[in-house]
Amino acid sequence: MSEAFRLGIAGLGTVGAGVVRLLTEHAALIETRAGRPIEVVAVSARERTKDRGIDLSSYHWCNDPVELAHLDGIDAVAEVIGGSDGPALDLARESLGHGRSLVTANKAMIAQHGLDLAQRAEANSAGLLFEAAVCAGTPILQTLREGMVGNRIDRIEGILNGTSNYILSAMERQGEDFGEVLAEAQRLGYAEADPALDVDGGDAAHKLAILAALAFGVEPRFCEVEIEGIRDIRAADIMQAERLGYSVRLVAMADMERQGDSPARLLQRVRPCLLPAHHPLASIDGPTNAVLAHGDYAGPILIQGAGAGSESTASAIVSDVVALARGETRPAFAVPATSLAGVKCADSGEREARYYLRFVVADRPGVLAELAAAMRDARVSIQSLIQEGESVGPEESGIMIALVTHKAPARNVRDALARLQGAASIVEPPLAMPILMD
Amino acid sequence: MSEAFRLGIAGLGTVGAGVVRLLTEHAALIETRAGRPIEVVAVSARERTKDRGIDLSSYHWCNDPVELAHLDGIDAVAEVIGGSDGPALDLARESLGHGRSLVTANKAMIAQHGLDLAQRAEANSAGLLFEAAVCAGTPILQTLREGMVGNRIDRIEGILNGTSNYILSAMERQGEDFGEVLAEAQRLGYAEADPALDVDGGDAAHKLAILAALAFGVEPRFCEVEIEGIRDIRAADIMQAERLGYSVRLVAMADMERQGDSPARLLQRVRPCLLPAHHPLASIDGPTNAVLAHGDYAGPILIQGAGAGSESTASAIVSDVVALARGETRPAFAVPATSLAGVKCADSGEREARYYLRFVVADRPGVLAELAAAMRDARVSIQSLIQEGESVGPEESGIMIALVTHKAPARNVRDALARLQGAASIVEPPLAMPILMD
Question: Given CB atoms, is B258 within the 8 Å cutoff of chain A?
Answer without folding.
Answer: no
